[in-house]
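Case study.
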Amino acid sequence: MRRLLAVLLENEAGALSRVIGLFAQRNYNIESLTVAPTEDRTLSRLTLLTEGDDEKIEQVTKHLNRLIEVVKVNDLTEGAHIERELMLIKVRAEGNGHREELYRTCRIFRGTVVDVTPDSYTVQLTGPTKKLLAFMRAIGETSILEVVRTGVSGIGRGDKILEL
Amino acid sequence: MTEMLSGGEILIRALQDEGVEQIFGYPGGAALHIYDAIFKQQKVEHILVRHEQAATHMADGYARATGNPGVVLVTSGPGATNAITGIATAYMDSIPMIVISAQVPHEVIGTDAFQETDMIGISRPIVKHSFIVKTAKEIPWLVKQAFYIAKSGRPGPIVIDIPKDTTDPNELFEYSYPESVSLRSYKPALKGHSGQIRKAAVALLKAKRPIIYAGGGVVQGAAEDELVAVARLTGFPVTNTLMGLGSFPGNDPQFVGMLGMHGTFESNNAMHHADLILAVGARFDDRVTNNPAKFCPGATIIHIDVDPASISKVITADIPIVGPAKPVLAELHASLQAELANHPFDKSSLEAWWKRIGQWRDAHGLDHDQRRRKSESGQLLPQQVIQAVYRATRGEAFVTSDVGQHQMFAAQYYKFGRGRQWINSGGLGTMGFGLPAAMGVQFAVPDATVVCVTGEGSFMMNMQELSTCMQYALPIKIVNLNNQALGMVKQWQDMQYGGRYSHSTYRDALPDFDQLLRSFGHHSFTARTLDELDAVVDEAFSDELKDKLVFINAYVDPDEHVYPMLVRGGALEDMVLSKGVA
Ligand SMILES: Cc1ncc(C[n+]2csc(CCOP(=O)(O)OP(=O)(O)O)c2C)c(N)n1
Ligand SMILES: [Mg+2]
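After joint prediction, the assembly is written out as follows.
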């Protein structure tokens, strides 16, 4: 089962390496990981995508909590939440017909063309992972030159917040 | 007036303010400012070891005997890496320890400087937490946090890595030591959940075939009295893990012995057939559960542990209780007393249960095996050596051990009366632990009788410390169960590899231990027969040699195996009981 964990972490040197080390050491996998400081500069927030059944995720959560620098852990997939990922994708865009079709597809997916050359577009796209994958399918593998994805960031819906 | 101190002096002052009396260490370039600060004061005594691994085991033994963190000081690079085995040993057994490793100066970190090693990185998976010092000013705060984290919750080792520039004697800073510490990201449980405890009490009252399974957490949490109280109130049988031995009196009629890999026939069977298991401060280690899929099929499991991550890690608990053993057991006791008013114990079922346990004990208990073996073998048996030592020390000694058959014989045949009395590397199984651990105990409790039960293989892994023992006049009694082989390895090769002794023997390459010990200024005696053994043990523990280190080199039957032994992949009731009989 796919799980999205939100982790509040002391914003200190070495803290992130402990989180990553824990996953390696305990043989848990990390599908994607995003991290940046929050509005409180002393805290970082991580969104970590992993796989596992309830028991496994309980263990992961407990072990994360055991790290001294981890302040809070929340399994976002347990409740209603929002997931977003940003992708920068460079695609081959040659010949008028092809370029227009690409542009249309891009608009359908609410992407933005952020750079243009005579042979390529660079498109910025945000959304849930599913949408990014659908976009890649829509333009076709052969058109894709380069893909950069940030990994998923997540936040709970409604008034619920992850705080100290 | 505020005091102005250098980083090195601040470190040592902070240790003084933390109440540290002894530290175990070994100097080197990056640590020399710190060593100079040690030289200029008297309150913290530094013990000079012969190998940094031994320093960590000494600090570990010190901590296990007292409950207070042991402190280690090593230099950068090889000093730090030599400490790794001891840190891992402490980590696996949840022992509070502070390891101060010197580091190359900040300006050369990352350049592969002489004796640079990434100690924080290397030690990360085997520490509870670690710090690298950025400026001398933060040293008091880091030391304060280190001790607090090491001791509280589930204890563990902490590394403080100190780059040399932060200990510069020419840079002075104001010193003050923080009074208290509180961390927003670290809040260990201080008591258990009352609702869960009440649920546990109700389950205990309904039990027909209960057993209390108590581990090292009872010792660490100083909950021995509370454990005894619950056992008395319930009348339930009690088994201990290897780490928990001593938390319940080994001679008590309610004690059914150790469980697990080399546990007693009665305890493993009682576990397997139990309908209720009260696990306290134990972590369902694989040496205990055997095959988790076949583990205690009919049992409701109550699991008390201070570390939530230990609960339901291997075996799912029906009633988990997160909290320190002491307050949880005390509350459980009170809760039981309250519930007893409207629900008595199932007396007749309990009687029948004890009868069954008695039958197991009579059929294959340890003493039974002893009687049989005594008559069969002309040679000295390792079990007899432990029993002789038990008698000579009236069961009161601190006993440390190394790892191997001798460790299991000590665990089985020395009946420990109190927590902290039995000190061994249960989790990591570190050969070479026994002697330095015994030294740490002797430093902590100078007047106590301290016995190190070892095997010749393990002993040779840290015997350089005999020199340290000479320097500090440590009167340890070392009991070498000399089977002239890596006995435990050999036993597995007997049982699983058709007796092919691949690299487990070295019979003709062993030293003359008596001469070896004497060269270090110690006493040593050899025993080959039961009569010799009695004489040697009497002498070793006599008043004349009370202040001396004495080594007993007991040649024991090299073909002896440790039994019972769990059948690999089986349940707890599946045991091999003697050679050739499964
Ligand atoms: C550092 C280390 N290396 C290897 C082992 C694997 N090992 C476990 S027991 C054992 C044999 C120990 O021999 P000895 O100390 O003579 O004890 P005996 O079993 O003979 O009583 C070995 C090699 C270990 N536990 N620790
Ligand atoms: Mg041996």
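Observations recorded in class. DSSP finds four helices and nine strands in chain A. The mean pLDDT of chain A is 95. We will return to this complex in the next lecture.
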